[in-house]
Amino acid sequence: MPMRRSLFSVTVCVLLSTALFSAANSDSTPTIHDRIAGMKSADGLFPTAWDAKTGKLFLEIRKFDQDFLLVVSLPYGLGSNDIGLDRGRLGEERIVHFTRVGPRVLLVAPNLQYRSSSTDPMENLAVKQSFAESVLAGFKIEAEEDGAVLIDATDFLQQDSFGAGEQLVDTKQGAYKLDKDRSAFALENTKNFPLNTEFESILTFASEHPAEHSLVATVTPDAHAVTLREHYSFVQLPDDGYQPRAFDPRSGFFDTHYRDYSAPLGSALDVRLIQRHRLAKKDPNAAVSEPVKPLIYYVDPGAPEPIRSALVEGASWWNQAFEAAGFKNAFRVEVLPPGADPMDVRYNVIQWVHRSTRGWSFGSTVSDPRTGEIIQGRVTLGSLRGRQDYMIAEALLAPYKKGEPVSSEMREMVLARLRQLAAHEVGHTLGLAHNFAASSIAPGTSVMDYPHPWITLDASGKPDLSHAYATGIGAWDKVSIQYGYSQFSAVTDERAALNGILNSAQASGLYFITDEDARPLGSAHPHAHLWDNGPDPAAELNRILKVRAAALARFGEDAIQPDRPLSELEDTLVPLYLLHRYQTEAAAKEIGGLDYRYALRGDGELVTRIVDPANQQKALDAVVKTLSPETLTLPESLLHILPPRAFGYPRTRESFEGHTGLTFDPVGAAESAADLTLTLLFDPQRASRLVEYHARNAANPGLNQVIEAVFQATWKALPTTGVAAEVQRITEASTVEHLLALAANPGASPEARAQARTAAVSLRSWISAKVTKVPESPEEKAVRAAAIARIEAFEKDPEKFTPATDVPAPPGQPIGDDEQD
After folding, report:
1. Other Cβ atoms closer than 10 A to 699
2. In this predicted model, what pLDDT tens digit does every residue of 516-526 receive, in sequence order?
3. Tens of pLDDT along 745-775?
4. Where are the alpha helices (DSSP H) in 88-225?
């Protein structure tokens, strides 16, 4: 008992002391008015106060547990496409709220991936308690007044929320860490408005030992210090007036999805909504009406003329689609007004971004994850794209003839491409995904495809670029906008109306196939390609090979400007020599191809259909032409004017590689081109489908038939002489390597591997037994002996086989992550 009384007395004393301390501490907490006296303050969504003496930024919170949107972006970039820290790049966006817990304030990100639509609070609580939320930051209360509190947001706003430091490490640039002593606020871009509060910080990432030959060193004054800016937007969420729209995989829209655990049994657990802007008619019952509030996009004034005007014009095409959806003057494009900040989420922006190397352009959005409503569209256009198109035009036209004016075709082609590009990327920010089937339906069907320039030959055999890129919005684009933005009367069955839009489109031959079905080299869809043209891939490949041959016959010194180093001809040659690369890929997808749609049960649309055997054979015949010495051999007249690189003009990754050191290697270029084709034909997924489809219908070409066609185009083709003979030998050697690689590839089916191995053994026997009427040269004997040795080594120990690496082709598409766009 005495011990218990003692413990009780101590406990009472401690509690009393704690209460007195808390009361004293509460009394000592200053008012917000007193705490920010003398500071520069700004009212808005979250009032701010800047203490110039200490360099601290304070934030006033008047409402707790009220969600808002937190967006992080990069207003100043690094300039390296490969690292990916581009000017204007959007980072994470989250719905968050401030909550008070005693003397602290927590910034909480609720878990919106898992929800309950029930009105029962206990059902909602069960879901909330089942999945974790994230507390992103904690703050000490600095002052309070009338229910509002003041927090010091300095450390939070000067941390690396974008993850730039991690990106530098992940791309192997060195161990970079944020240096707070070299970081500060960018006050000129820290602003307050009624619906959004904007902050910007200057952040320096330091490294004592940057990676040797790092990319950072090529784009910074000092690789030891990388100074970027990170921008924070605190944005009030939209009101409840937005009406979400159901996602349909046939519509061409991106989706927002979450799981609703209150969905009735038998109903879908996952809710999928399209992403789109809010757009409403002034007169909901009118067939055509002006909008309550139009969509306005602003072009970066940093884009020079005439590019700026081209961007305005191309992006404005979308008004055609909104007119088809029943809106008048609903979409406008203007130049960003002076003083406006493109990071301010109140502006939809089209930014002109520079990098040290060419890369992807892309369209990103800030959206409400609760509903899919797009709040801001943000487009990034890489400025080097136009210069690449200009060089392609130079290669095709060889326009710099002595004494003649330079053709304007190149400039016009670039501007046409930039109009299309602006429309394409704005389409993403309207909610639309790529439609890579569009180019096989008809020219100009959708700006959401990747267009290859349409090049023809005039009567004299000269390439004609006057119709390189289509103009205006496409038929599919109008269908998508109708699905996403059409406004229906209160008595209309919306689901039936939306189905009617897509069913009507499909009946007219319009449909949608996107990235995952088009980008992989082994993908099956015969009409979903990037950078292709026409409904018949094989016919177009044959046509583009003729255009390429005609352009190569004209190619020479006139392809570069006077007084430029002749070694620059090599750079201009690259896109012309590989002009056929993407149409080859399109034709290859006919081989072992499967036509299909994103069909719904009962929609009456095509589900699957193996490509007709005759079309597969036609495509195979066209593709193997790209392996012929006739296609791959450059003329001696051109080789005479391709010198080693001039001093100060080194090769880059955009140049051909080779085996001959400083000199241009025409055989290495051929090896690169052959590798592109053989990689497609011996792709493990394509090989496996060839085996399966031939088993299902013997009329379909099988893998053995494809392998034999390659043999006929390489090993069994008529022998040639000179450089063409070397080209033929390099394609023969490359064929062996790709065939053995397929035989060893665990990603291929067992039967595909077995057939590849058997074909290799058969080739070895054919090489060994071949008798020629003409004596073989030492070079021919060497390549045959090497092939026999490679096949025998594979047979002896397949597990140890490592295919030789071909000379890689220079990049064709924009450099970098192709999922950026």
Report:
1. 13
2. 999 999 999 99
3. 999 999 999 999 999 999 999 999 876 666 7
4. 121-130, 154-157, 164-170, 216-219
Structure tokens at 511: 């449909």
Rounded Cα distance between 51 and 427, Å, is 43
Give yes or no for a contact between 81 and 354, defined as CB atoms under 8 angstroms apart.
Answer: no
552, 395 in Cβ contact below 8 A? no
Q: How many CB atoms lie within 10 A of CB 530?
A: 20
d(CA 289, CA 486): 11
Contact 483, 248 (CB under 8 A): yes
Is the N-terminal amide bond of 306 cis, ω within 30° of 0? yes
Q: Which two tokens stand for residue 783?
A: 């390549």
- What is the pairing mode between strands 177-185 and 196-206? antiparallel
Contacts of 617 by beta carbon, 8 Å cutoff, 6+ apart: 701
Which two structure tokens, joined as six digits, stand for 776?
A: 């073989």
The pLDDT of residue 821 is 56
Separation CA 526–CA 590 (nearest Å): 5
Q: How confident is the model at residue 193 (pLDDT cuts 50, 70, 90)?
A: very high
Q: Among positive and negative, which fits the CA dihedral 10, 15, 17, 18?
A: positive
pLDDT reading at 17 higher than 50? no
From CA 217, how far away is CA 224, in angstroms rounded? 9
- Give me 726's structure tokens: 């070397």
Q: By C-alpha distance, which of 406, 524, 379 is closest to 87?
A: 379
Asked whether residue 527 carries a pLDDT value surpassing 70, the answer given is yes
Binning the chain into helix, strand and coil, the percentages to the nearest 5 are 40, 20, 40
What is the predicted pLDDT for the residue at 668? 97
Transcribe 45-81 into DSSP letters.
SS-EEEETTTTEEEEEE--SS--EEEEEEEEE----T
pTM of the model: 0.93
SS (H, E, C) 781-800: HHHHHHHHHHHHHHHHCHHH
Q: pLDDT (tens digit, 9 = 90+) per residue, 478-510?
A: 999 999 999 998 889 999 999 999 999 999 999
Q: Using CA atoms, how far apart are residues 410 and 390, in angstroms rounded to an integer?
A: 6
> What's the token pair of residue 303?
């884009």
Backbone angles phi, psi at 596, to 5 degrees: -165, 170
The pLDDT confidence band at residue 10, using thresholds 50, 70 and 90, is very low
Dihedral over Cα of 564, 568, 571, 573: its sign: positive
Q: How far is residue 601's CA from residue 499's CA, in Å, rounded to a whole number?
A: 12
Which are the contacts of 197, defined by CB distance < 8 A and separation ≥ 6? 44, 45, 46, 48, 191, 233, 234
Average pLDDT, the chain: 94
Taking alpha carbons only, the member of 448, 445, 444 closest to residue 422 is: 448
Pairing state of beta strands 295-299 and 348-353?
Answer: parallel
Identity of the amino acid at 340: A
The tens digit of pLDDT for each residue in 541-565 reads 999 999 999 999 999 999 999 999 9
Q: What is the pLDDT of residue 21?
A: 40
| Beta pairing, strands 104-109 & 191-192 | unpaired
What's the pLDDT at 517? 97
Q: Which class for 799: exposed (0-12), middle (13-18), buried (19 or more C-beta within 10 A)?
A: exposed
Sign of the CA dihedral 478, 481, 485, 486? positive
Q: Which of 302, 357, 297 is nearest to 330 (CA)?
A: 297
Task: Provide the sign of the torsion angle of the four alpha carbons 185, 187, 189, 195, taken in this order.
Answer: positive
E strand segments, 176-321: 177-185, 191-192, 196-206, 225-236, 255-260, 270-274, 276-277, 295-299
8 Å CB contact between 219 and 190: no
| Beta carbons within 8 Å of 456's beta carbon, 6+ residues apart | 463, 464, 467, 547
Peptide bond into 562 cis (omega under 30): no
**Residues in a beta bridge with 367:** 374
Closest CA to 591 of 671, 695, 702: 702
CA separation for the pair 440, 475 (Å, rounded): 13
Contact 429, 348 (CB under 8 A): yes
Beta bridge partners of 191: 198
